[in-house]
Each structure stands twice: as C-alpha cells, then as structure tokens.
Design goal:
alpha+beta; Beta-Lactamase; elongated; Enolase-like, domain 1; three-stranded antiparallel sheet; about 20% strand; 12 helices
C-alpha cells in the first residue's frame, strides 16, 4: 500500500474511533491535511474498500474500518508514544501503596480498566517464574503444622499437614534444612534440591521431614496459572448501538477462566505488546472485540500476562501504550518487592 492510502486509512480509523460515526470523504478533507483533492480521497477510499480495509455499513453512509483495516493500522503504527511524566507518576503512585501480591494485582486491574476504559485482565504470576524467598513452619498443634512458601513475586502459598508429635527444636532444625535447600532457587531448582534433601535427612528429622518435603514439592510444582483478576466489565456497556447486541455473549465468554487464559496466551514476553483483532480471536463470541496484551516480569523472566479486551473500535495507540506501561511498572514493582 502506498503512503497516501495509508494516511487516508489512518485518518478513517482515528475519526471513527473518536466520533463513533462512519467517515465520509468530505470530513476527511476538512479535518486532515492530506494534501490531495476530495476526488483523490474518494478514489483512495474506493481502492481501500475494494481491498477490504474499509466498508460501508449501510447505503449513503461513510466508511468504517474492517478487522483487516485495523490490523494494517496497528502493524504500521511504528513506535508507541510513551506516557507523559504525569501519567507515569500516576501509575507509580497507584501501585506503590500495595500491601501484598493480591493487592498489587487488584490495583493493576483497576488501573488498567480506568486508563483504557476497557475490560482489564491480569494473570497471577506462576511459581515456575519466581524464586523461593523463604520457607516457614508454624506449629498449630502437637500433631499439625502449617507450611508456608514465600516467593520473589510476592506469592504466599500455605498448606497444613498432619505429622507425629514434634517439639520446637525439631521444627527449627527442619526449617533451617528446608531454607538452605530452597531459598534463592527457582521452583524447578528448589524441587531438585528438596528431593536430594529428602534422601539425606538425619534420622531425627526423617518422618516429619519427608512429609514436609513432599508437601513443599507439591507447592513449588503447582503452576496456579488459572488464577486471574478481571475488572472494568461495565466499560463494555458504553459503546452504543453497534456493540449492544454482542455485549451479553462477550461478558459471558469473559467469565470463563480458560477463555481469558487463551486470550492472553500469545503475550508471553515482557515489554512486547500483542494485539489480536476481531476475527483473529479464537472464540466466536469475542470476534467483535480486540485484545491488547503484554507479559510482565523482571528483566530476565516473564512472570505472567495482563491485558485489556474491548470493541475493535478502540484507540489502539493509547491502549497499547497504557498496557505496555502498566506491565512495565507492575513487573518492576514485583521484582523489586
């Protein structure tokens, strides 16, 4: 496609997103410095329509972008405009008051929904993408323990287990062994080291230690990828008549965790934004929507994904910049925390 037609397409997408009305050639000439005559703009629009980038929703109306048009628009965006210093400070301030992982992710969802005016989705970090920070053992009764695993992403997993009678001295010794084996290692490394520890425990710790190690191995191996936080559902109801008939099936689809995971699934790298538009979505109910997503994590690892879902008629440059910025901040916040 030549540059002029691309400029016409960009102008149509921009005007349609902001006005919610089909765009005519006269409006394009009046509002954009395209540097060509109205007749040339009409010819370009006819060519764009013939090639499937725009369409006429009904007779005697202007044109609106198709999924193919939005895709070309997104692919030709070039670099994303960075957020302003004020927007960056607002994100940082909003997240900095968080108390724990749950609070961070709830705040992230609220923030994303608020700044994009779309439905926001954040996946919990998986244990496989974190480092063991501490293992704690708490005596709940003479024959019952609480095993607590704390990871670098702020996740806290806990399990109760029944064991023979024990004393604090035994617990202190076992706690030291478990932390020596696990702390500072990724979940897979910790699993290997804990398995070796199970073979070398002193006789005094063998029974209680085997039970604790078996439980810890289950904890470090659990992916917990199904946990998601969703917010901003009411945002979908503000898109007017052209989205009215599809809001209910979209909302129902978004209630399914498996659907959410698949929607975010392609965004598996931090600092990279992926966009899936309309019929590119694998679910029929969601083919009137677009998904903008990114991985979040540290400089060397991606913890999980986050993103937004909204009508295909969305402000892609702004939404993509916001998703990328929030992903960067939440990844940095969890890495430093």
């Amino acid at each position: 496609m030549d540059d002029r037609k691309l400029e016409v397409l960009r102008a149509i997408v921009t005007d349609y997103v902001s006005s919610q009305e089909p765009v005519g050639s006269r409006s394009l000439v009046e509002h954009h410095d395209l540097g060509v005559s109205p007749a040339t703009v009409r010819n370009d629009m006819a060519a764009l329509e013939e090639e499937g980038y725009i369409m006429q929703p009904h007779t005697s109306a202007g044109r609106i972008p198709t999924d193919k048009g939005y895709r070309l628009f997104v692919d030709r965006l070039g670099s994303l405009k960075p957020l302003s210093p004020a927007e960056q400070r607002a994100i940082q301030t909003f997240l900095s008051g968080a108390l724990d992982l749950d609070d961070v992710l709830i705040r992230t969802v609220r923030l994303l929904a608020q700044v994009t005016q779309q439905v926001a989705i954040v996946q919990y970090p998986t244990l496989s993408h974190s480092v063991v920070r501490h293992v704690e053992i708490v005596s709940m009764s003479p024959s019952r323990l609480l095993l607590i695993l704390i990871t670098s992403t702020g996740r806290i997993e806990q399990r109760a287990l029944e064991i023979p009678e024990h004393d604090e001295e035994t617990l202190a010794e076992l706690r030291a062994h478990l932390n020596t084996a696990a702390v500072g290692n990724t979940s897979s490394q910790a699993a290997v080291r804990l398995s070796k520890l199970a073979e070398t425990l002193p006789p005094s710790l063998e029974v209680i230690g085997q039970a604790a190690i078996a439980t810890l191995l289950e904890m470090v191996s659990s992916e917990a990828t199904g946990r998601m936080v969703v917010g901003g559902m009411p945002n979908l109801t503000r898109y007017g008549a052209e989205f009215e008939t599809t809001v209910k099936p979209v909302l129902e689809a978004l209630e399914e965790q498996v659907v959410l995971l698949k929607l975010l699934g392609e965004a598996n790298a931090a600092d990279e934004v992926t966009v899936r538009i309309g019929h590119e979505n694998p679910y029929k109910e969601l083919q009137s929507t677009s998904v903008v997503a990114s991985g979040y994590g540290s400089q060397v690892d991606t913890f999980a994904t986050l993103g937004v879902v909204g009508p295909t008629r969305m402000d892609y440059p702004s939404t993509m910049a916001s998703v990328r910025a929030v992903a960067r901040y939440v990844g940095r916040f969890l890495s430093e925390g």
